[in-house]
Amino acid sequence: MASDVSSPIIPAVIIPRVGIGTDVHAFADGVPLWVGGLRWDGYEQGLAGHSDGDVIAHAACNAIFSAAGIGDLGTHFGTDRPEYAGAAGVKLLGEAARIVRAAGFEIGNIAVQVIGVRPRIGSRRQEAEEVLSAAAGAPVSISAATTDGLGMTGRGEGLVGLATALVYPVAPRG
Ligand SMILES: [Zn+2]
Protein backbone atom coordinates (compact mmCIF):
# COMPACT_ATOMS: atom_id res chain seq x y z
CA MET A 1 0.00 0.00 0.00
CA ALA A 2 1.53 3.27 -1.09
CA SER A 3 1.77 6.13 1.32
CA ASP A 4 2.75 9.71 0.68
CA VAL A 5 5.05 10.65 3.51
CA SER A 6 4.96 14.29 2.53
CA SER A 7 1.28 14.57 3.41
CA PRO A 8 0.50 15.92 6.84
CA ILE A 9 -1.31 13.43 9.02
CA ILE A 10 -4.66 15.02 9.72
CA PRO A 11 -7.07 12.74 11.52
CA ALA A 12 -10.65 12.81 10.27
CA VAL A 13 -11.85 13.15 13.84
CA ILE A 14 -9.80 14.69 16.62
CA ILE A 15 -10.19 12.50 19.66
CA PRO A 16 -9.49 14.34 22.90
CA ARG A 17 -7.77 12.55 25.73
CA VAL A 18 -8.62 12.89 29.40
CA GLY A 19 -6.18 12.47 32.25
CA ILE A 20 -6.25 12.20 36.00
CA GLY A 21 -3.90 13.57 38.62
CA THR A 22 -3.65 13.52 42.36
CA ASP A 23 -1.27 15.09 44.86
CA VAL A 24 -1.04 15.03 48.64
CA HIS A 25 1.13 16.98 51.04
CA ALA A 26 1.22 17.22 54.82
CA PHE A 27 1.08 20.47 56.74
CA ALA A 28 4.34 21.29 58.51
CA ASP A 29 5.64 24.03 60.75
CA GLY A 30 8.09 26.59 59.56
CA VAL A 31 7.27 26.69 55.85
CA PRO A 32 5.12 29.21 53.98
CA LEU A 33 1.74 28.05 52.69
CA TRP A 34 1.52 27.94 48.90
CA VAL A 35 -1.68 26.62 47.32
CA GLY A 36 -3.13 27.35 43.89
CA GLY A 37 -0.09 29.34 42.85
CA LEU A 38 -0.71 31.82 45.69
CA ARG A 39 1.05 32.45 48.95
CA TRP A 40 -1.37 32.40 51.90
CA ASP A 41 -0.19 34.50 54.79
CA GLY A 42 -1.63 34.25 58.25
CA TYR A 43 -1.35 30.47 58.55
CA GLU A 44 1.08 28.86 60.99
CA GLN A 45 1.80 25.89 58.75
CA GLY A 46 2.64 25.38 55.10
CA LEU A 47 2.84 22.24 53.01
CA ALA A 48 5.93 20.04 53.12
CA GLY A 49 7.35 18.56 49.96
CA HIS A 50 10.10 18.29 47.39
CA SER A 51 8.97 21.64 46.03
CA ASP A 52 6.51 24.11 47.54
CA GLY A 53 3.87 21.44 48.20
CA ASP A 54 1.23 23.18 46.07
CA VAL A 55 -1.24 20.30 45.71
CA ILE A 56 -3.42 22.17 43.23
CA ALA A 57 -0.58 22.97 40.83
CA HIS A 58 0.93 19.51 41.24
CA ALA A 59 -2.36 17.69 40.63
CA ALA A 60 -2.82 19.84 37.51
CA CYS A 61 0.65 18.83 36.26
CA ASN A 62 -0.13 15.16 36.86
CA ALA A 63 -3.43 15.47 35.01
CA ILE A 64 -1.98 16.97 31.83
CA PHE A 65 0.91 14.49 31.81
CA SER A 66 -1.64 11.70 32.30
CA ALA A 67 -3.84 12.99 29.48
CA ALA A 68 -0.88 13.14 27.13
CA GLY A 69 0.27 9.71 28.27
CA ILE A 70 3.76 10.88 29.15
CA GLY A 71 4.07 9.92 32.80
CA ASP A 72 3.69 12.15 35.83
CA LEU A 73 5.42 14.70 38.02
CA GLY A 74 7.95 12.15 39.21
CA THR A 75 8.84 11.30 35.61
CA HIS A 76 9.64 14.89 34.72
CA PHE A 77 10.51 16.69 37.96
CA GLY A 78 11.53 13.87 40.32
CA THR A 79 14.15 13.97 43.02
CA ASP A 80 16.73 13.17 40.34
CA ARG A 81 16.11 16.69 39.01
CA PRO A 82 17.53 18.83 41.84
CA GLU A 83 16.95 21.99 39.83
CA TYR A 84 13.24 21.62 40.66
CA ALA A 85 13.73 21.25 44.41
CA GLY A 86 11.82 24.06 46.04
CA ALA A 87 10.35 25.15 42.70
CA ALA A 88 7.06 26.99 42.78
CA GLY A 89 4.10 24.86 41.72
CA VAL A 90 3.07 27.49 39.22
CA LYS A 91 6.52 27.26 37.61
CA LEU A 92 6.20 23.47 37.40
CA LEU A 93 2.79 23.82 35.77
CA GLY A 94 4.19 26.17 33.15
CA GLU A 95 7.00 23.74 32.40
CA ALA A 96 4.60 20.77 32.36
CA ALA A 97 2.40 22.57 29.83
CA ARG A 98 5.44 23.25 27.66
CA ILE A 99 6.41 19.55 27.78
CA VAL A 100 2.85 18.44 26.91
CA ARG A 101 2.76 20.83 23.94
CA ALA A 102 6.18 19.63 22.80
CA ALA A 103 4.72 16.11 22.82
CA GLY A 104 2.14 17.20 20.25
CA PHE A 105 -0.90 18.18 22.29
CA GLU A 106 -2.88 21.30 23.06
CA ILE A 107 -4.55 21.64 26.44
CA GLY A 108 -8.32 22.04 26.45
CA ASN A 109 -8.82 22.62 30.17
CA ILE A 110 -7.77 21.48 33.61
CA ALA A 111 -10.19 21.07 36.51
CA VAL A 112 -8.81 20.75 40.04
CA GLN A 113 -10.55 20.02 43.31
CA VAL A 114 -8.71 20.60 46.56
CA ILE A 115 -9.81 18.66 49.64
CA GLY A 116 -9.11 19.94 53.12
CA VAL A 117 -10.13 22.37 55.81
CA ARG A 118 -7.68 25.22 55.18
CA PRO A 119 -7.00 27.60 53.61
CA ARG A 120 -10.40 28.91 52.53
CA ILE A 121 -9.86 28.49 48.80
CA GLY A 122 -13.13 30.17 47.91
CA SER A 123 -11.91 33.51 49.18
CA ARG A 124 -9.21 33.65 46.49
CA ARG A 125 -10.46 31.13 43.97
CA GLN A 126 -10.64 33.52 41.02
CA GLU A 127 -7.15 34.84 41.72
CA ALA A 128 -5.75 31.30 41.86
CA GLU A 129 -7.55 30.34 38.65
CA GLU A 130 -6.06 33.34 36.85
CA VAL A 131 -2.51 32.57 38.01
CA LEU A 132 -2.69 28.88 37.08
CA SER A 133 -4.52 29.51 33.78
CA ALA A 134 -1.78 31.92 32.77
CA ALA A 135 0.87 29.34 33.65
CA ALA A 136 -0.84 26.52 31.76
CA GLY A 137 -1.96 28.63 28.81
CA ALA A 138 -5.38 27.02 29.18
CA PRO A 139 -8.36 27.41 31.48
CA VAL A 140 -7.80 26.02 34.99
CA SER A 141 -10.85 25.79 37.23
CA ILE A 142 -10.62 25.19 40.96
CA SER A 143 -13.19 23.88 43.40
CA ALA A 144 -12.91 22.86 47.02
CA ALA A 145 -14.37 20.19 49.24
CA THR A 146 -14.11 18.97 52.81
CA THR A 147 -14.46 15.49 54.24
CA ASP A 148 -16.84 16.11 57.14
CA GLY A 149 -14.04 15.93 59.68
CA LEU A 150 -12.93 12.48 58.53
CA GLY A 151 -9.45 11.32 57.70
CA MET A 152 -6.22 13.26 57.43
CA THR A 153 -7.86 16.04 55.43
CA GLY A 154 -10.66 16.33 57.95
CA ARG A 155 -8.18 16.53 60.81
CA GLY A 156 -6.29 19.26 59.01
CA GLU A 157 -3.11 17.21 58.69
CA GLY A 158 -2.71 17.82 55.00
CA LEU A 159 -4.29 18.71 51.68
CA VAL A 160 -5.30 16.56 48.71
CA GLY A 161 -5.47 17.81 45.14
CA LEU A 162 -7.47 15.91 42.50
CA ALA A 163 -7.45 16.96 38.88
CA THR A 164 -8.71 16.03 35.48
CA ALA A 165 -7.49 17.46 32.22
CA LEU A 166 -8.42 17.29 28.58
CA VAL A 167 -5.83 17.48 25.83
CA TYR A 168 -6.09 16.93 22.09
CA PRO A 169 -3.50 16.10 19.47
CA VAL A 170 -2.38 18.85 17.16
CA ALA A 171 -0.17 18.87 14.09
CA PRO A 172 3.51 19.31 15.00
CA ARG A 173 4.58 22.93 14.94
CA GLY A 174 7.59 24.58 13.43
ZN1 LIG B 1 3.14 17.71 45.22
TrEMBL record:
<comment type="similarity">
    <text>Belongs to the IspF family.</text>
</comment>
<comment type="function">
    <text>Involved in the biosynthesis of isopentenyl diphosphate (IPP) and dimethylallyl diphosphate (DMAPP), two major building blocks of isoprenoid compounds. Catalyzes the conversion of 4-diphosphocytidyl-2-C-methyl-D-erythritol 2-phosphate (CDP-ME2P) to 2-C-methyl-D-erythritol 2,4-cyclodiphosphate (ME-CPP) with a corresponding release of cytidine 5-monophosphate (CMP).</text>
</comment>
<dbReference type="Pfam" id="PF02542">
    <property type="entry name" value="YgbB"/>
</dbReference>
<dbReference type="GO" id="GO:0019288">
    <property type="term" value="P:isopentenyl diphosphate biosynthetic process, methylerythritol 4-phosphate pathway"/>
</dbReference>
<feature type="binding site">
    <location>
        <begin position="50"/>
        <end position="51"/>
    </location>
    <ligand>
        <name>4-CDP-2-C-methyl-D-erythritol 2-phosphate</name>
    </ligand>
</feature>
<feature type="binding site">
    <location>
        <position position="155"/>
    </location>
    <ligand>
        <name>4-CDP-2-C-methyl-D-erythritol 2-phosphate</name>
    </ligand>
</feature>
<dbReference type="GO" id="GO:0016114">
    <property type="term" value="P:terpenoid biosynthetic process"/>
</dbReference>
<dbReference type="InterPro" id="IPR003526">
    <property type="entry name" value="MECDP_synthase"/>
</dbReference>
<dbReference type="GO" id="GO:0008685">
    <property type="term" value="F:2-C-methyl-D-erythritol 2,4-cyclodiphosphate synthase activity"/>
</dbReference>
<feature type="site" description="Transition state stabilizer">
    <location>
        <position position="146"/>
    </location>
</feature>
<keyword id="KW-0456">Lyase</keyword>
<comment type="pathway">
    <text>Isoprenoid biosynthesis; isopentenyl diphosphate biosynthesis via DXP pathway; isopentenyl diphosphate from 1-deoxy-D-xylulose 5-phosphate: step 4/6.</text>
</comment>
<dbReference type="GO" id="GO:0046872">
    <property type="term" value="F:metal ion binding"/>
</dbReference>
<dbReference type="InterPro" id="IPR036571">
    <property type="entry name" value="MECDP_synthase_sf"/>
</dbReference>
<feature type="binding site">
    <location>
        <position position="23"/>
    </location>
    <ligand>
        <name>a divalent metal cation</name>
    </ligand>
</feature>
<comment type="subunit">
    <text>Homotrimer.</text>
</comment>
<feature type="binding site">
    <location>
        <begin position="23"/>
        <end position="25"/>
    </location>
    <ligand>
        <name>4-CDP-2-C-methyl-D-erythritol 2-phosphate</name>
    </ligand>
</feature>
<protein>
    <recommendedName>
        <fullName>2-C-methyl-D-erythritol 2,4-cyclodiphosphate synthase</fullName>
        <ecNumber>4.6.1.12</ecNumber>
    </recommendedName>
</protein>
<dbReference type="InterPro" id="IPR020555">
    <property type="entry name" value="MECDP_synthase_CS"/>
</dbReference>
<feature type="binding site">
    <location>
        <begin position="72"/>
        <end position="74"/>
    </location>
    <ligand>
        <name>4-CDP-2-C-methyl-D-erythritol 2-phosphate</name>
    </ligand>
</feature>
<feature type="binding site">
    <location>
        <position position="58"/>
    </location>
    <ligand>
        <name>a divalent metal cation</name>
    </ligand>
</feature>
<feature type="site" description="Transition state stabilizer">
    <location>
        <position position="50"/>
    </location>
</feature>
<keyword id="KW-0414">Isoprene biosynthesis</keyword>
<keyword id="KW-0479">Metal-binding</keyword>
<feature type="binding site">
    <location>
        <position position="25"/>
    </location>
    <ligand>
        <name>a divalent metal cation</name>
    </ligand>
</feature>
<feature type="domain" description="2-C-methyl-D-erythritol 2,4-cyclodiphosphate synthase">
    <location>
        <begin position="17"/>
        <end position="167"/>
    </location>
</feature>
